[in-house]
Design a protein that fits this description.
The structure holds three protein chains of three kinds. Chain A is mainly alpha-helical. Helices cover 68% and strands 5% of the residues of chain A. Chain A has a three-stranded antiparallel sheet. In chain A, strands 2-6 form a two-stranded antiparallel sheet. The two termini of chain A are 28 Å apart. Chain B folds into two domains: 191 residues, Response regulator (Rossmann fold, 3-Layer(aba) Sandwich); 126 residues, Rossmann fold (3-Layer(aba) Sandwich), CATH 3.40.50.2300. Helices cover 43% and strands 19% of the residues of chain B. Chain B contains eleven helices and 15 strands. In chain B, helix 6 links the parallel strand 6 and strand 7. The longest helix of chain B is centred in the first third of the chain and has 22 residues. Chain B is globular, with a radius of gyration of 22 Å. Chain C has a two-stranded antiparallel sheet with strand order 1-2. Chain C is mostly helical. Helices cover 68% and strands 1% of the residues of chain C. Classes of the chains: A mainly alpha, B alpha/beta, C mainly alpha. Chains in contact: A-B, A-C, B-C. Chains A and B meet through helix 3, strand 2 and helix 13 of A and helix 2, strand 7, helix 7 and helix 8 of B. Strand 1 of chain A pairs parallel with strand 3 of chain C, so a sheet runs across the interface.
Chain lengths: 375, 385, 459
């Protein structure tokens, strides 16, 4: 590289414009895209039902990632910290709901208080209570973490906060794995409500236990629908919060310029705490839904979903709420389709390749705003 | 020059202190190291293994030890990862001067330990490492001082294939495996080989990774292929997820697996109708099994305060401990060469059946087939080698 | 069980002795007299070598437990020094060094494995390949420097095509040359004249260098497009790199054509040739190379990129090139470390190169102080001897439940450390050899240079 430097300095006038070679890069990208399209189109016509099935499972995964990614993107947008502990808060959400259901039967409280309620109301109200409890505990936990571990480091180099985040993450994972806390086992999760599956084949029918749905049918479950609906609702409400309310305005101001926001009379510490609380409440919600969909929980549960959600947030443009959402959906599809048509082990590779390619074309992600020049 | 002084001062101090350290100790006790992954990716296996081995040690000590010598356990966390495992082995062998090791659980941690232990003539008894590379080196030479208490993959795969074709009459099978997990991969390959050799047809084979939670893509393919049997030789945590999602997708083909299924945390409702090969059944009525299950339950409680049922890992660690201690007792000495010679000729009645060793230091013993039905795991049959 | 105060004392003395040893090493290396320098280095090498070989009672002063820690400390320090060059000095937040470490380990192990099994073509292909790819990259670099403002994707595509062609060519050259050289190198049945224990040592050293160069070349290809992404994006992409490398390791026998690596089962049968001499030699090499880079004009350019990209650009510094240079050099160190590690442990499993463990070098670098080579060195040794050495010994004595606490204590230490000293143990202090050399005075204002031996701290 040294030679390159000297030659460049000695012969500046004769250098040709590199823009003439831009077609090479474009051709490369085009080739990649073409390959992907051909694979997808071929597999679609090969077996459309299987394709649809895979897309549905990708959607379910994508919407869970979206819930986690929302928290990531909010926190990163405001304090510019990759909060590695976010995935572990997600894990804690799943565990809180697990204990609420198994130890305290919290999902059945309406039936205990009002014995005459119809079962559907009991389930809905009970499950919502469990979820709210998880969200509250997660929010509280995140605020505590923020106050104890991150706040003292706000003026320290950014890396100190990052290492602290890694430390908090390890601490939650391994403290949780101690026998008297959560124990290191993979615990079968007890759901607050039952999962019902339907299949589409000449109309919609319910899948009965011990009965194969007919060949060529597409199955989907209530939890998939719940995840999608909840995720969309949360995204819309968050959008409203950030765009239309006072605290949202304060958040945006803090994200844009912390010092200026402080000078404008915004209590930056409070705004940051609230951001952590909201983001983590979403993570807790995601944790419960994730555990219901994939019912085996362990203290290392949050590591990979957390990482992938962060990638999704970066993909969509970090700091942008619709971006996190779209990025998560892309990640979900990329994973499911790679697993379905290329090879399961390569799905992380494909997901990260998509990330790198997108960032090369749009350096701030799909919905990201161009970064302001750092002073 | 100050640097030299400081350095040499510390070096001298270090020499003096470690000289004192190596002079002390060595009473009449037998030190036995238990290397188990208490942290890292699979801490739950480590805990079971440790508890099973400690149970064996406690029972021997209650009987007055081996030939009058008490057994002192040294528990080390080896994390199921090569470097910490090797560090732990170095520590117990060189620092604590143990001559006997029970562990490790994972093959990838056992292999480096076994190389080192063998070179130092230390007996390593792995309760659950199934890879052939643990007891045999890459040139096919047996590592003299390394033994294991579990049967190896080819045998278990063969038993499963025989059962699938014979009893279940499943002519087609779908195999699901985790490439990154040596245990799963070994078992899946052994099963596939034995199954196709016996006339079965493998209609599909799909990979996933151990960190996956969403199996719907693979299950969509399973539903498409309509196999007579799905072979899923993974640990219970994956089994819980897969079988639950399969039930929700209405897949009726029975699932079958290996000893990794055995756990009190196996979701029996989801895995209903499944079969797995195992080392023992806690429902076995042989007195040694009954006593072990009872004693273990008295000593170890789960998080609700209920007595724990020992899983296969605990049972094998218990067997490993008993095998080792019986061999030491029969040899009449703690000399590892003598103990090794005794072990190669041993005939031992353990929880997991009658154990003798073949030339490669693999136990020759029976396999048990268990059936998951009605929310319970029930004993189905015993298959002898 | 009770805590034995003697073993606590031993552990503390051991850590202190290691620290003093590192201090002594840097002091003698920085000594003005050449003879003291050489003599001191040899003496410090010999102290440890003697401690390994002299027995007190029935075991050596430094038993295998300690030497194992020492080897691992050396390798992890090499990786961490590389990361410090990339992150601490150049400001590029890389989480990917663990992947290059893995690449180095597997590449070196494969070469010596094939060599011991009578297949010298592996060494030939790898050696020729690394050289050819290097030539292609440098040549293309020369050629492409004629273009102004070349889009990074185009450059990457060209390099990729060039590297693939070079790789294929190397394979065919190696495959044809292999049988021709068979009488020299021999096969597994007929050992050639060059097949001896000494030859294995030479092959090992070559393998480690080839592995390092290979890791560096991969780093070049990966870094070229990805380094343009900027700090945190680069970090997350490089984390992805570790995950992808790990996936490839797991599938090395199915997706990649290396059946001897045995995929997830782990590669067995790697000759364990790493001795204290080699570990020391490679560590010393990395220290010297790194120190000379940092205190050269290149090093100052690297530092300036960290401090202010815009200003550096204005001074005529080619930012992209310096980022790439530091990334490639850092990955070279990681690859070397991997090669040494593989031949110490003799068994490679993808589990070792998991991305969670890959945070360790980052933690070491931050612990020691970003932009402090001494800090990394001290922290690397301290970390290994504290976490794997002291905690293991002490917790082992506290009963059968205590070892599960190891990974609870470790993050707590980390958190406390960050709260108390967010700039790391040593901040930006350097010892002895690693200090900025005091330039011969030519008059003028000395104070403008700042205190000697202090590299400006990260803002």
């Amino acid at each position: 590289m040294q030679q390159a430097n000297t030659s460049q300095r000695s012969v500046p006038a004769t250098r040709k414009s590199g823009a003439r070679l831009a077609w090479i890069g474009r051709a490369f990208l085009l080739a990649l895209a073409l390959f992907a399209v051909i694979v997808l189109v071929r597999s679609f016509f090969d077996n459309p039902q299987l394709f649809a099935q895979i897309v549905i499972s990708g959607l379910q995964l994508g919407f869970v990632y979206a819930l986690i990614a929302l928290g990531y993107t909010m926190v990163y947008g405001i304090v510019k910290l990759i909060n590695f502990a976010h995935g572990d808060v997600f894990m804690a959400g799943a565990f809180v709901s697990f204990f609420a259901v198994t130890r305290f039967q919290l999902h059945l409280w309406p039936a205990m208080v009002f014995p005459n309620l119809p079962p559907i109301v009991v389930t809905v109200v009970g499950s919502i209570t469990v979820i709210l409890l998880s969200m509250a505990v997660c929010a509280l936990m995140a605020v505590t973490i923020e106050r104890v571990a991150y706040k003292p480091l706000r003026t320290a180099p950014r890396i100190a906060a990052l290492i602290t985040a890694i430390g908090v993450s390890f601490f939650l994972e391994y403290f949780g794995a101690l026998n008297f806390v959560f124990s290191p086992r993979f615990i079968p999760y007890q759901r607050p409500f039952d999962v019902v599956t339907w299949y589409i084949f000449d109309g919609i029918h319910q899948v009965m236990p011990g009965q194969n749905p007919p060949q060529g049918s597409i199955t989907f479950s209530n939890i998939a629908i719940i995840i999608m609906v909840v995720s969309i609702l949360m995204q819309l409400s968050l959008q409203f919060l950030v765009r239309r309310t006072r605290i949202g305005k304060a958040m945006r101001a803090t994200a844009f310029d912390k010092q200026a926001a402080q000078l404008m009379g915004i209590n930056v510490d409070r705004v940051i705490s609230i951001t952590f609380a909201i983001g983590s409440a979403f993570a807790g919600l995601g944790g419960v839904l994730y555990a219901i969909a994939y019912p085996s929980i362990n203290t290392l549960l949050g590591v990979l979903p957390g990482l992938k959600a962060f990638v999704a947030a970066v993909l969509g443009g970090i700091g942008s709420i619709p971006g996190a959402f779209v990025g998560a959906l892309i990640m979900g599809q990329a994973e499911a389709l790679t697993a379905g048509y290329i090879s399961t082990p390569m799905r992380d590779a494909i997901a990260f390749t998509i990330l790198i390619v997108v960032l090369l074309v749009r350096p701030t992600g799909i919905f990201g705003e161009p970064e302001k020049e750092k002073a | 020059m100050r640097a030299f002084k400081i350095t040499s001062l510390f070096a001298l101090a270090a020499i003096a202190v470690s000289a004192c350290a190596s002079a002390g100790g060595t009473g009449g006790d037998i030190k036995v190291a238990i290397l188990a992954p208490l942290s890292g990716p699979v801490p739950t296996f480590g805990v079971s293994t440790r508890d099973g081995a400690l149970q064996a040690i406690d029972e021997w000590n209650a009987k007055g030890g081996i030939n009058g010598q008490k057994i002192v356990p040294i528990v080390e966390d080896s994390q199921c990862t090569p470097d910490p495992a090797l560090n732990a082995a170095h520590k117990v062998i060189d620092q604590d001067k143990v001559s006997f090791i029970i562990g490790e659980v994972c093959s990838k941690a056992s292999i480096p330990i076994s190389d080192y232990a063998n070179s130092k003539k230390i007996i390593e008894m792995s309760p659950t490492s199934t890879a052939t590379g643990v007891t045999v080196d890459q040139n096919g030479k047996v590592k003299d001082y390394i033994f294991r208490a579990c049967f190896i993959d080819p045998f278990q795969g063969k038993v499963a294939a025989k059962f699938a074709l014979g009893t279940l009459k499943a002519q087609t099978a779908f195999i699901m495996l985790d490439q990154s997990n040596d245990y799963v991969k070994g078992l899946a390959e052994a099963f596939e080989q034995a199954y196709t050799a016996a006339g079965g047809k493998v209609v599909g084979k799909e990979n996933y990774t151990g960190k996956d939670t969403d199996f719907s893509t693979i299950l969509a393919k399973v539903a498409d292929a309509k196999p007579g049997l799905v072979y899923l030789p993974d640990y219970y945590n994956i089994v819980n997820l897969v079988t639950k999602q399969a039930k929700e997708k209405g897949i009726t083909a029975p699932f079958m697996g290996g000893d990794g299924w055995d756990s009190p945390d196996l979701d029996t409702k989801a895995a209903d109708g499944g079969y797995y090969t195992n080392h023992y059944s806690p429902e076995d009525t042989r007195p040694e099994v009954v006593n072990f299950v009872k004693a273990y339950g008295v000593k170890y409680k789960d998080d609700k305060g209920q007595p724990k049922t020992p899983d296969a890992l605990a049972a094998l660690a218990y067997d490993a401990g008993n095998l080792l201690f019986t061999a030491i007792k029969d040899a009449g000495s703690t000399d590892t060469t003598k103990v090794r010679d005794t072990l190669t000729k041993i005939s031992f009645d353990g929880i997991s059946g009658k154990i003798t060793y073949d030339a490669d230091h693999n136990p020759v013993k029976s396999a048990t087939i268990l059936h998951v039905t009605g929310g319970k795991v029930v004993f189905d049959s015993v298959v002898n080698p | 069980m009770e805590l034995d105060p003697l073993s606590l004392l031993i552990s503390i003395v051991k850590i202190a002795a290691v620290m003093a040893w590192v201090y002594g090493l840097l002091r003698v290396m920085g000594h003005a007299s050449k003879w003291v320098k050489i003599g001191g280095i040899i003496a410090l090498f010999a102290v440890v070598q003697l401690a390994i070989s002299i027995n007190v009672g029935d075991s050596p002063i430094l038993n295998n437990f300690d030497t194992g820690l020492l080897f691992q400390a050396c390798t992890i320090t090499m990786v961490s020094l590389g990361l410090n060059l990339i992150y601490g000095f150049n400001g590029q937040f890389s989480l990917g060094q663990w992947g290059f470490y893995g690449i180095g380990a597997y590449a070196a192990a494969d070469i010596t494995y094939r060599w011991t099994n009578g297949d010298a073509a592996g060494l030939l292909v790898a050696g020729i390949g690394v050289i050819l790819i290097g030539v292609v990259i440098l040549g293309l670099n020369r050629f492409l420097s004629r273009y102004r403002g070349l889009p990074v994707l185009s450059a990457f595509t060209l390099y990729l095509i060039g590297v693939i062609i070079a790789g294929v060519a190397a394979y065919y050259i190696g495959a044809t040359l292999g049988p021709m050289l068979a009488p020299l190198f021999g096969t597994s049945d007929v050992p050639g004249i060059l097949r001896s224990d000494l030859a294995l040592q030479v092959v090992f050293v070559l393998a480690v260098f080839i592995a390092g160069a290979f890791a560096a070349e991969v780093a070049f290809l990966f870094g070229l497009p990805v380094l343009t992404l900027g700090s945190d994006y680069f970090g997350i992409a490089s984390l992805g790199f570790v995950i992808v490398v790990n996936t490839l390791m797991v599938n090395s026998d199915t997706i990649l054509p290396f059946p001897e690596m045995k995929g997830g089962r782990g590669m067995v049968g790697i000759p364990q040739v790493t001795t204290w001499f080699y570990a020391f030699f490679f560590l010393l090499l990395v220290i010297v190379v790194m120190r000379n880079i940092i205190h050269s004009s290149t090093g100052r350019a690297i530092l300036s990129v960290r401090e202010d990209e815009t200003a550096s650009k204005a001074m005529g510094i080619n930012i992209a090139n310096y980022k790439l240079l530091s990334f490639v050099t850092g990955s070279l160190f990681a690859g070397l470390g991997g090669g040494v590690y593989a031949h110490y442990i003799g068994f490679l499993s993808p589990g070792t190169f998991d991305f969670l463990i890959g945070f360790n070098p980052l933690i070491i670098v931050v612990f020691g102080g970003l932009g402090s080579m001494t800090g990394t060195l001290v922290a690397g040794f301290f970390w290994m001897f504290f976490l794997e050495g002291m905690l293991r010994v002490l917790l082992g004595q506290l009963g059968t439940e205590a070892p599960t606490w190891r990974f609870v204590l470790y993050p707590i230490t980390l958190l406390l450390m960050m709260l108390v000293r967010p700039k790391g143990l040593l901040g930006s202090v350097e010892w002895g050899f690693l200090k900025r050399p005091v330039a011969p005075r030519r008059g003028g204002n000395d104070s403008a240079r700042g205190p000697a031996g202090v590299v400006p701290a990260l803002k």
